[in-house]
């Protein structure tokens, strides 16, 4: 890259060295990381919900879905039907 630069243009390597010399040194401060808080515990499920464990919602009734036939889809008339 530097060989393709015109005469008098600053060299890339010199520019990078100059910039690197101007970057301030970052002090290495000791850093204390606090302990993570304890994981909260979920409340137990009410008695009488056999087999559901913790997956429950109160005040909701579940009904089975009734299978329905799809509605009739209107089709586009064909060429002979349009002309008749």
Tags for this model:
84 residues, flat, mainly alpha
List the helices and strands and how they pair.
Layout: H1 12-22, H2 79-83
Quick structural summary:
The protein has 84 residues and is mainly alpha-helical. It has helices at 12-22, 79-83.
Describe this structure in words.
This protein is 19% helix and 0% strand. It has 84 residues and is mostly helical. The longest helix is centred in the N-terminal third of the chain and has 11 residues, at 12-22. The protein is flat, with a radius of gyration of 38 Å.
The beta-strand count equals 0
Q: What is the alpha-carbon Rg in Å?
A: 38 Å
How do the helices and strands follow one another from N- to C-terminus? HH
**Uncertain spans, ≥5 residues at pLDDT below 50?**
none
Largest sheet: none
Mean pLDDT: 76
Counting helices, strands and paired strands, the structural category is mainly alpha
Distance between the termini: 77 Å
- Tally of helical runs: 2
Helical fraction equals 10-25%
Task: Provide the β-strand percentage band.
Answer: under 5%
Mass-distribution shape:
flat
């Amino acid at each position: 890259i530097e060989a393709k630069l015109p005469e008098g243009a600053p060299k890339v390597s010199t520019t990078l060295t100059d910039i690197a010399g101007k970057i301030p040194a970052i002090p290495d401060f000791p850093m204390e990381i606090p302990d993570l808080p304890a994981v909260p515990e979920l409340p137990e499920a009410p008695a009488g919900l056999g087999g559901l464990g913790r997956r429950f919602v109160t005040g909701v009734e579940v009904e089975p879905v009734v299978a329905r036939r799809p509605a009739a889809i209107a089709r586009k008339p064909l060429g002979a039907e349009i002309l008749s």
